[in-house]
Amino acid sequence: MSLIQVKDLYKIYQMGNTEVRALDGVSVTIEKNEYVSIMGPSGSGKSTLMNLLGCLDTPTSGEFFMDGINVATMGDDELAHIRNKKIGFVFQTFNLLPKSTSLRNVELPLIYNGEIKAADRRDMAIRALTRVNLGDRVSHKPNELSGGQRQRVAVARALVNNPAIILADEPTGNLDSKTGEEIMVLFDELHKQGNTIILVTHEEHIAAHASRVVRLLDGKIAVDEATHRGKK
Amino acid sequence: MKSFFWENLRIALSELWGHKTRSILTGTGIVIGIIAVSLMSTLINGVDGLFEESMKFLGRGNLYVEKWPWFGDEDWWTLRNRPRIELDMAEAIKERSQYAMVVAAERGRSANLSYKELSAENIYIHGVTANYPEVSTVDVEYGRFFTESEDRTGAQVVLLGSEVAKTLFPQGNPVDKMIFAGSKRFRVIGVLAEMGKFMGAFSNDTQVIIPLATFNKIFHGPWGRRSITVKVPEHLVEEAKEELRGVVRVLRGLKPEEKDNFAINQQNAFRQSYQGIKLAIGGTGMIITALSLLVGGIGIANIMFVSVKERTREIGVRKALGATRSQIQGQFLIEAMVITASGGLVGLIISTLISMAISKFLFPATMSFGVAFMAIALSATVGLFAGLAPARKGAKLDPIEALRYE
């Protein structure tokens, strides 16, 4: 079974008398260890799809299986558990807790996991930080780190729970192009190591890192094709 | 679940540490409330102890026949015009009363004492019958009490209260020394053991005791306290009181329609009026406590709403990383409870210090473990209630909205 199976997904908002179809019948399948970028202009439903894939939201109708689990009809707390165990988020604005050290930030998903002992959490967090080359920045707080370092802490946090997918929303949007490129190299490595990565971006050269690109327009999938890199 | 508690506690402590001034200001209401409640209960406990200690001076089975009632709202002029208590009624009472075990009579007034160049002023001279030790808590530390024959003959002998003995005889044994009360010479035959104060105010140790007959011989005139103490079995004190009333009425020759022209006092009168005072103190304390905890709680709820609002994005991040509603709710509840419990702790420390000061300078008042426990539990409960609405608000936030919040 595919890692993500989405069929006829609709997300409809009622704005007064008008109906806004943010997603208008989207079907997509993503396999394990795929590297997919989702593109589209603003208002295309790109963010809505990302929120649904990230289990932050539920669809109005349609099927959504993640790792064989039906996510479409889950309640708040069940979704929280799925997010905790299956998804690693990387945000455009990093979203680190400003008063906590890198270690504490990376530990956070493990704390909400609830089944991992404090000593193990620490080890796992240090390992994740080492994987993003921040083994020496464990006790720094976000404001003591550069933008690129902050985003790498965020990537470590996304990795630490061994999630089924890493979901990155414009991960280079707040970085200069050189640092952005470093982060993309990091994603490429993670992909090579067997992770499944979904990248939401509006920049072609960023999307080009993926092997497949899904383009949305008006809530529908307009294009779903292999990238230049994917064709190789 | 345990790990969330510690995690939440850790978050709460670092949040509060990060907003020190805010936390202190917020917790102040609780501090005041807890000071009010714990100090009030400590004071009541202390006054209780003091009261019980004082009540020992008035035996439970003692009835005091006197002109003035100890408490009551009878017309002052009526009371004023009552005849003096004839102390020679004592013998008649002893004969006629079924319940009376001991009947002692006493008078009192103050006078100045002197021994050589040392003097003690305004000392309460207590003229009592020889059976007085049986109806009171006086205890002879050294020397002896006077005998019945010394009382009958009006011997000029005196027993000194412990303070008086210290004043007139800073060193050396007073027994067999001669002291002056006014112009009369008295031989000291004993010193009383220390008794302490009655209700923390009137010292029983600054009195001297002489035989009643001697008192009558020396001090003339209508002034001073006169009282007949009738000791009856403790469990029959109410019946005995009624009987005694009848006996005294007959001795006074009162007609059935006439009102009593004397009072029969007992410990209970003190108890009743003390209970009233205690309720008033306790009630005031409860109102102050409730108000300050209420106001403090509202302040905390308010600041928690602010905190939830400020940390909307943090809540979004935590939710995205897998925090459930109850985990977020727990985080803010614990934060509110940490503020109030710390406020409670500070309040407790302050009131412990105050009660230590009271113990040292006024009367024994120690904070009991129960009071301390109650104060902390109460303050944590205030936090629980104050934090509930803000915590729920935070827990219900939509993670997508929260992550977008600037």
Structure description:
The complex is a heterodimer of chains A (232) and B (406). With 232 residues, chain A is an alpha/beta fold. Chain A has a single domain (32-58, 77-231), classed as P-loop containing nucleotide triphosphate hydrolases (Rossmann fold), CATH 3.40.50.300. Chain A contains 8 helices and 10 strands. Chain A has helices at 46-53, 76-86, 102-113, 118-131, 147-159, 177-192, 204-207, 228-231; strands spanning 4-15, 18-30, 35-39, 61-66, 69-70, 87-90, 165-169, 196-200, 212-217, 220-226. In chain A, strand 1 (4-15) and strand 2 (18-30) form a beta hairpin. In chain A, helix 3 (102-113) packs across helix 4, helix 3 (102-113) packs parallel to helix 5 and helix 5 (147-159) runs parallel beside helix 6 (177-192). Chain A starts with a strand and ends with a helix. The model of chain B has no long low-confidence stretch (mean pLDDT 87). Chain B is an alpha+beta fold. Chain B folds into 2 domains: 2-54 and 278-404, no CATH class; 62-265, no CATH class. Chain B has helices spanning 2-18, 20-55, 76-80, 89-96, 132-135, 148-153, 162-168, 212-218, 237-252, 267-310, 312-320, 325-361, 369-396, 399-404; strands at residues 62-66, 102-115, 118-128, 140-143, 157-160, 178-181, 184-192, 197-198, 202-203, 207-211, 225-231, 263-265. In chain B, the strands form 2 sheets. In chain B, strands 2-3-10-5-7-6 form a 6-stranded mixed beta barrel. In chain B, strands 8-9 form a two-stranded antiparallel ribbon. In chain B, helix 1 (2-18) crosses helix 12. In chain B, a hairpin with a 3-residue loop joins strand 8 and strand 9 (202-203). The radius of gyration of chain B is 33 Å and the shape is elongated. The longest helix of chain B has 44 residues, at 267-310. At the A-B interface, helix 2 and helix 3 of A face helix 1, helix 11, helix 12 and helix 14 of B.
